[in-house]
Amino acid sequence: MESLSSTQGETFVGLDVHRKTVVATAVDPLGHPVSQVTLGPSDAELAEYLRTLPGTKHVALEACPVWEHFFDAAESTGAAVVLSNPLKTRLIAEASLKTDRVDSEALATLLRLGALPTSYAPPSAIRDLRAQIRERVFYRRKTGAVLQRIYPALLRRGIEYEDGLLQHRRKREVLRDLHLSEVDRGLDALRYLEDLCRELDRGIEEACENSPEAQLLRTIPGVGPLTATAVVAFLTPIERFSSVEKLSSYVGLCPTTRQSADSIHYGSLKRDSNGLVRWLLVEASWHRRRVPRGAVARVANRVGRRRGKQQGTIAGTHTLLKIIYAMLKRKEAFRSQAPGPSTSVRIRRRHTTTARICVRRTALELPTANSPSAS
Question: How far apart are the first and last CA of the chain?
């Protein structure tokens, strides 16, 4: 493959972006500096600067809380924009002198050499869907926090209540007859949060219905519209992951490993991972009791007997992720038991025997790059 540095007529730009400033460094294919400026947080100012640079522009910026609108502004100028992985970039280009100008110059240099570790930058529609899913999960967790404020208010006053009373919207309205301001405020907050969740659920369900991949995942017991849409939004295109082991590492279902000579220590699950998808998959794996003879239940029960219930749940979730990976790779729907001839998807395990997950072909087809629906 031809190195980027051998290509003439190009400019490589590194952007160190912040909430209030953007430091841009541009170099030519030989590494000679073209310009280095400090810009404001305006998208228009960044786009105007990039248009003044000669040749074909290649732009790199680090993933951070404000990268999205800068990424879109740079793309609008026709530049080839990539998103840098900040953790891996620091390992390669760590410097004793750390300033914004040094960081932007390091990004431009790594981009010129073709050595910049990049992250996947989803399109704008997927980013909006991800934000909607995060918002929905945030408000649902807040409802649990509100419930934990109402329960103590009742217990302090010695008020007995039916189990699950607060989970039913109509039944809990009887608590208003107590005329307790603390409880009434909690009920009002609970109603407001549930209305927000319902509004967000409608948008998520619509996105799920319009996604062939999400419809495939809905055939798995325990996977609802929220989980299916989240998997599609955060994990697809599945071709980003060359193996199910790399997908497991991204989701955070692999333990941390520390090795020195013959000593190996496996610690807790990775924290620098997608905790939202991991949490949703763990919740979905609890539905394994609906398919007690399925692969998820078998693995969870076997590991649970040896290592405990928590370890069994993680092992079952890992098996569920393997099933999802195989389904998205092969575009096949889930089937737990196959009374007749079926297609078998082999799922590799590192420390256990090979499991067979039976699936059946489905009429749902993913759009190809040349199909009208892919545009």
Answer: 29
List, for residues 103-123, the tens digit of each pLDDT value. 999 999 999 999 999 999 999
In the chain the beta strands, taken as DSSP E runs, fall at: 10-17, 22-27, 33-39, 56-62, 80-84, 118-119, 255-260, 263-269, 333-334, 343-347, 355-360
Strand order in the sheet with 355-360: 333-334, 355-360, 343-347
**Backbone phi and psi for residue 238, each to the nearest 5 degrees, phi listed first:** -65, -20
Per the listing, tokens 């912040």 go with 18
By DSSP bridging, strand 333-334 and strand 343-347 are unpaired
Q: What is the pTM of this model?
A: 0.82
Least Cα distance to 103 among 11, 15, 13 occurs for: 15
Q: Which of 303, 249, 300 is nearest to 277 (CA)?
A: 249
For residue 100, give every residue at least 6 positions away whose Cβ sits within 8 Å of its Cβ, in sequence order, or none: 16, 18, 21, 23, 38
Read off the amino acid at residue 166. Answer: L
Max CA-CA distance within the chain?
79
Q: Would you tell me how many other CB atoms lie within 10 Å of the CB of residue 269?
A: 14
Note whether 132 and 114 are within 8 A (CB): no
What digits encode the pLDDT tens for the residues 1-25?
A: 333 443 458 999 999 999 999 999 9
What is d(CA 124, CA 46) in angstroms, rounded to the nearest whole number?
19
Q: In 3D, which of 212, 197, 63, 209 has the Cα closest to residue 133?
A: 197
Give the residue from 81, 35, 23 showing the smallest Cα distance to 57: 81
> Beta 80-84 vs 118-119: how paired, if at all?
antiparallel
